[in-house]
């Protein structure tokens, strides 16, 4: 690690601690040449996930889009932002841990609906109505009937 002050390539770690709930490690380093201290952060390198959309185009996975979808579905519902963040974290972990580097938007939508179904039935129906693009009231009612039969 090059020193940001003198560009010397050797430094020693003086302090190390976990940050962001173990996602990153903060390290205080001291340059072996000029003795100045600086901070570095270590994170796990993750491979990008490519999403194959319904029109067969591809784009990089965007966590913010998933959070936005959850926020819209949970609007005016008693669902905390922490619950939403945790659910999106879990979906992202499933995607990262799979061996596939490409995933369909359909798979992501199904994972999201699974989480929302467990969190809040109204949020689930909201998300499903947009995600599944119900063509008419009958298909919407079929989904509601299925949801009600699952809950009993």
What does this structure look like?
The chain is of the alpha+beta class and 152 residues long. It folds into two domains: 11-43; 50-151. 45% of the residues lie in helices and 22% in strands. It contains five helices and six strands, in the order E-E-E-E-E-H-H-E-H-H-H. The chain has helices spanning 63-73, 81-97, 105-119, 121-131, 137-151; strands at residues 11-19, 24-31, 37-43, 50-52, 58-60, 102-104. A hairpin with a 5-residue loop joins strand 2 and strand 3 (37-43). The protein is elongated and about 75 Å long.
Features:
three-stranded antiparallel beta sheet; alpha+beta; three-stranded mixed beta sheet; 152 residues; 45% helix
Structure summary:
The chain is of the alpha+beta class and 152 residues long. It has helices at 63-73, 81-97, 105-119, 121-131, 137-151; strands at residues 11-19, 24-31, 37-43, 50-52, 58-60, 102-104.
Helix and strand layout, with pairings?
Layout: E1 11-19, E2 24-31, E3 37-43, E4 50-52, E5 58-60, H1 63-73, H2 81-97, E6 102-104, H3 105-119, H4 121-131, H5 137-151
Parallel strand pairs: 4-6
Antiparallel strand pairs: 1-2, 2-3, 4-5
Helix pairs in contact: 1-2, 1-4, 2-3, 3-4, 4-5
